[in-house]
Amino acid sequence: MVAKKPQQNPLVCHGHSRPIVDLSYSAVTPDGYFLTSASKDGQPMLRNGSNGDWVGTFQGHKGAVWQCVLNEPALLAATASADFSARIWDAVSGDVKHTFPDDHIVRSVHFSQDSKHLLTAGYDKVSKMKIYDLHNSSSEPQHFQAADSIRFASHHQNDNLILSTYVDKPNISVWDVRSRQIVKTLETTDVVLSLEIVNSNLFVTADGKSVKLWDANSFQVVKSFSFPHKVESASYSPEKHKLAAGGEDMWVHLYDFDSGEEVDCNKGHHGPVHCVRFAPGGESYASGSEDGTIRIWDTEFSSKQDEQHSANGVAH
Questions:
Q1: Among the listed residues 284, 286, 288, 255, the one whose alpha carbon sits nearest the alpha carbon of residue 272
Q2: Model confidence band, residue 2 (pLDDT cutoffs 50, 70, 90)
């Protein structure tokens, strides 16, 4: 008897009224780990990372929020918004600690490793990227000049470098923080819609119909995956050797990184999948969609099903 492969029933997190555009997990803290979500509804949310339970909403932005991230201890949150501002929040009380006004849409925020600085990036015509001193928030930030609007920017290599991607053009720029200049350009075929720094040695990108894993020191492509459809986001779990990806086909795909074989094809979203991220340790991964929901999936679902079928003597 050939059994039909069962579909996974994920944890479904409601609360947002418009599309989810970004998800981010915190590091593991004494209180567990957390999941933040950014949405076009302008209401970034904080959740328990393991079960998706709502913890709180950071209220105050007057436009879409493009990114919401936590610092290393998960005590501070930062948000990037279409209301021409970035904000720092107390992640425990939910209160705004500081607002950084901008001259245009802010698309990206990222804390330095020691949480002393905040990197912001976006559409500002004069200064596309800025680094603020959080211990002296009224001081003038460091300005980085770029010709094109920036989609994403992140500190890299002990905050000595910055990786940035663009809204309307391909490629990844590697910036030297001290000189504030681009020191290397990593070529891609299409606009990079997703960049995830996995650890100090690896980062993952999604551009067009391809997902690439890069060596974060040599900046060479380690492995590349091709898809029949446009991919909007990808995430890699080094602990599980799994790659998750989502995009315009509305499904969340899980792959064995070594063999390239698709392990799971998760259905349930009712719109394109804009973001996919693994939880710390890789036991689960979250997806956010145009449909306004977050879904949390079990990485080992298929393995558990195979073990159960084997125990029951059922072929599949």
A1: 288
A2: very low
